Amino acid sequence: MSGLRAVLFDLGGVVMGSPLHAIADYEREIGAPAGFVNRLVVATGPGGAWSQLERGEVGLELFYARFDAECREAGQPVVSARVMMERIGAAAQPRPRMLAAIGAIRERGLRTAALTNNWVGEGGDTGTRRMDGVFDAVIESAVVGLRKPDPRIYQIALERLDVPPAQVVFLDDIGRNLKPARALGMTTIKVDGEAQALADLERVLGFALP
């Protein structure tokens, strides 16, 4: 086995269905330019509605109003934040092969954690209850008030795992979220698909996964 002692997983797009795919499908459906939402989130930065939502600073209703306004200002009044988030929620189904792999990793004695940018949904649920018992730790942006790629949320993950960064591998489907992990000394895997991610993870860990 490699010298790795822990595996850190993003949720959406890695362990669960991809919000990026759900957003892309929605953009196509309403005729918005491909990648519009992602570009808007990046352009509005930490003060934007999306970032505020993921840090737990605003609830969904206020987010809907603010994000719709940002879309109008960016020339896309056809975007409905409410509908978009419903589509994301519907896509966020756990991936059985990933869950099986996490179980196998834990059986090998490695620690596991989820590091996710998320938000507080209806009834105060962040959507991670279905992950109860899957990981040794779950670090949520809406709970800790920080979101990837802020380096501080990675430090929190390392503290929860109680493992040095050189002994951690981190999987995420967004490249900019991998950069801080690499800077800290973690091994990183860019997830483009489930089969690819699991093959890369097997190679890094040095043992087969289900």
**Gap between N and C termini:** 16 Å
**What order do the strands of the largest sheet run in, or round the barrel if closed?**
3-2-1-4-5
Number of strands: 5
CATH superfamily of the largest domain, please? HAD superfamily/HAD-like
Topology-level CATH name of the largest domain: Rossmann fold
The share of residues in extended strands comes to 5-15%
CATH class of the largest domain: Alpha Beta
Number of domains: 2
Pairing-aware structural class of the strands and helices? Answer: alpha/beta
Q: What value does the Rg take, in angstroms?
A: 17 Å
Shape: globular
Order of helices and strands: EHHHHHHEEHHEHEH
Helix count? 10
Percent in helix: 40-55%
> Mean pLDDT, as a whole number?
96
**Uncertain runs:** none
**Named CATH architecture of the largest domain:** 3-Layer(aba) Sandwich
Largest sheet: 5 strands, parallel
Structural write-up:
The chain is α/β, with parallel strands linked by helices. The protein folds into 2 domains: 125 residues, Rossmann fold (3-Layer(aba) Sandwich); 73 residues, DNA polymerase, domain 1, CATH 1.10.150. Helices cover 48% and strands 11% of the residues. It is built from 10 helices and 5 strands. A 5-stranded parallel beta sheet has the order 3-2-1-4-5, with helices on both faces. Helix 9 links the parallel strand 4 and strand 5. Helix 1 crosses helix 5. The radius of gyration is 17 Å and the shape is globular. It starts with 5 loop residues before the first strand and ends in a 5-residue tail after the last helix. The model has no long low-confidence stretch (mean pLDDT 96).
